[in-house]
Specification:
The protein is built from 15 helices and 11 strands. It is of the alpha/beta class. It binds 6-deoxy-beta-L-fructofuranose and manganese (II) ion.
């Protein structure tokens, strides 16, 4: 197998790259057929994998220590959608964008819908925001939103969520993601039970306002911006809320919202087991909510998560309909290149998970053959599926190597010319 860096760049990676791909794919297909897999069926499965892009990840992100803005960054929702459509064009696997309100508030949502139709993209879950005070906002969320002891502030937060649902309905979203920054920094500051009860009460009102074909995703996070207690701190708190709300309330797992060494695939299996796994915010992290590109730090964990998902899908587990979304902040990488890498990593993790011999694994688990059970997973994980994933993209009109194709396309240079540079170090367009 030749390393990608030797292939000519650009969408038309050139016949040489095409030939190299065809040889690699043929070799892999032959090997997989030998192991009892139908290569074309696997390609079709990978083609079926789609992930939503976060509108807030197309501009360079930053930390409290600073932000290094990039060239040609989007400044409007339309420009974010242009970039999203370009990512979809190169991968064939990212047909929807997830909006964040009010960051993506637009005066005319009909215009947004016609732009989306023109660009060939749609809308996934819409995200609320009660973790910032907006200009002119009457009451502050400094000490919480749904958990706030002040009923008027809770009312304001509920009204915001009802507004977000209206925006989502206007663009055809079918889900609302609720992540609350609510929490405390010091023991005694907040009633640990009262705050949770207030959140549940407010969410019940929001849930009641959901259109019948919508879902509500509750997103847990252990800390930040609260540094002592976060009201929806862990999957257990999120599950308690989702179970108290109703069938269309499920839990969203942001991979970065787990303390180091927490077994995320186990949490995924637990939520799948009770039909409460609503979706994901894919990213990766080494320490905290680092929002790094998925598969960049813990690729085996990403594979193990997809193993649980593919198994659940094959078993047609009740309530299995996970919403796959990305949630990242690109501080150093070109945001589009980072998202192209991410989609590729997710496609690869999914493809590897499709290679697990589930029947064999179940046998080894039943017979207590620890080594062979582990080897059955590793056999799939250690298979180089890059030709399979590249073929799936090619059959959807995408690029064999999206990052090289993006660089060859000159898109960033074109956008840099079109879009005046953001002030260096200034706030990203979404803040
Ligand atoms: C919180 C979070 C949440 C989004 C925000 C951009 O850390 O993961 O999902 O609202 O990032
Ligand atoms: Mn998230």
């Amino acid at each position: 197998m030749t390393a990608t860096s030797e292939r000519p760049a650009g969408l038309e990676a050139g016949r040489a790259a095409e030939r190299a791909h065809e040889r690699d794919f043929a070799a892999l297909a032959e090997r997989l057929e030998g192991e009892g897999f139908a290569a074309d069926k696997l390609v079709a499965e990978v083609q079926g994998f789609e992930v939503a892009l976060p509108s807030w990840a197309f501009a360079t992100g930053g930390t409290r220590f600073g932000r290094f803005s990039g060239a040609g960054e989007p400044r409007t929702l339309r420009e974010k959608m242009e970039d999203a459509a370009f990512v979809h064009g190169l991968t064939g696997a990212a047909p929807r964008i997830s909006l964040h309100i009010p960051w993506d508030a637009a005066p005319n949502m009909d215009e947004v819908c016609s732009d989306a139709r023109r660009l060939g993209i749609g809308f996934d879950a819409v995200n609320s925001n009660t973790f910032q005070d907006q200009p002119g906002q009457p009451l502050s969320y400094k000490l919480g939103s749904f958990s706030n002891p002040n009923a008027a502030i809770r009312r304001q937060a509920i009204e915001h969520h009802l507004h977000v649902i209206e925006v989502g309905k206007a663009v055809g979203s079918k889900a609302l993601t609720v992540w609350l920054a609510d929490g405390s920094n010091y023991p005694g500051q907040m009633s640990l039970r009262g705050s949770f009860d207030r959140v549940r009460e407010c969410l019940q009102e929001v849930y009641a306002a959901l259109p019948d074909d919508w879902r509500l995703f509750t997103e847990h996070k252990p800390y930040e911006p609260a540094f002592y207690a976060t009201v929806v701190q862990d999957w257990g708190s999120s599950l308690l809320l989702a179970q108290s709300l109703g069938d269309r309330a499920q839990c969203l797992v942001d991979l970065g919202h787990h303390l180091p060494s927490v077994n995320i695939e186990l949490i995924v299996a637990r939520l799948l087991g009770v039909g409460k796994l609503g979706g994901f915010h894919f990213n990766d992290s080494k320490y905290g909510d680092d929002d790094l590109t998925a598969g960049s730090i813990k690729p085996y964990v990403l594979f193990l998560i997809f193993h649980e998902l593919v198994l659940a899908g094959r078993e047609e587990l009740p309530g299995f309909d996970p919403a796959y979304m990305i949630d990242q902040s690109h501080n150093l990488k070109d945001p589009i290149e980072a998202l192209l890498q991410t989609v590729d990593q997710l496609q690869q993790a999914y493809a590897k998970a499709c290679l697990v011999d589930h029947a064999q694994l179940a046998e080894y688990q039943a017979s207590g053959d620890v080594i062979m059970a582990e080897r059955t997973l590793k056999q799939a994980y250690e298979t180089d599926v890059r030709p399979l994933v590249a073929e799936a993209r090619r059959r959807r009109g995408g690029a064999l190597d999206p990052v090289l194709a993006f660089r060859a396309s000159g898109y960033r240079a074109q956008k840099t010319a079109e879009r005046p540079a953001a002030a260096p170090g200034g706030a990203p367009t979404h803040l």
